[in-house]
């Protein structure tokens, strides 16, 4: 293949799994994606992807093309980074707003890497549970998990956030069943749904904590059982998923900016950097441990 757009199509379907999600990522329609894939497979006289429940999976030949596409992507990204690093417009402050769990558990090293790659840009990170108001200039770029966001903002919906139920690895074995307790959020309106989705709806609440990270540390310290984002719970060797618990894909993860800011080179740069970082961690965020 000589056309980068063909490589982008293969990477897009490999990462997004479905035609519709690939179309959203590439800014086209699912019929166009299907047509272009059919043309590529006709060109090679071989299947590049095979249908599976819920989408598409690369064939052995397709995996070779995916690997090549990743190499091409890396070359392009490297040249773009070199250009951006020498671009005088890529300087000054830029503010990113995201939830504290993401800044601590998911993107800490990546944010550090951004500052090393682009030392002329002063990255300011606002970690908060509230959604920064882009219209009021509270941030330049935001990452948020939410069911729906203001339509006038510009960006992309990446994928869904996976949540699962966890306990310390010794909790269920060393604690009598009658003494099991939930660590719940203070928001009473969300707890009934969480409890209904849990494998142990009969277990009572032992403690309610409003802060996500404090609940996580309570689970980690064996205070009780609780729910956490998969990217927080799965990597820690002292935490295990509760028996019978599988990830539930909840809120869409959005990467957004204001229309007035989108054409700024440093805003585009940060958004592309974060898109790459988050797409690389999709399996972790969704709770797909089979990929790890």
Keywords:
292 residues; alpha/beta; Arc Repressor Mutant, subunit A; D-Maltodextrin-Binding Protein, domain 2; 9-stranded mixed beta sheet; two-stranded antiparallel ribbon; 11 strands
Shape: globular
CATH fold title of the largest domain: D-Maltodextrin-Binding Protein, domain 2
Q: What proportion of the residues is helical, as a percent range?
A: 40-55%
**Number of individual domains:** 3
Number of helical segments with 4 or more residues? 12
Task: Write the CATH homologous superfamily of the largest domain.
Answer: Periplasmic binding protein-like II
Overall number of strands: 11
Rounded mean pLDDT score: 88
Query: Termini distance?
Result: 30 Å
Q: What is the CATH architecture descriptor of the largest domain?
A: 3-Layer(aba) Sandwich
The proportion of residues in beta strands is 15-25%
Main β-sheet description: 9 strands, mixed
Structural class: alpha/beta
**Class of the largest domain, according to the CATH hierarchy?**
Alpha Beta
Unreliable sequence segments: none
Secondary-structure element pattern, one letter each: HHHEEHEHHEEEHEHEHEHEEHH
Rg is: 21 Å
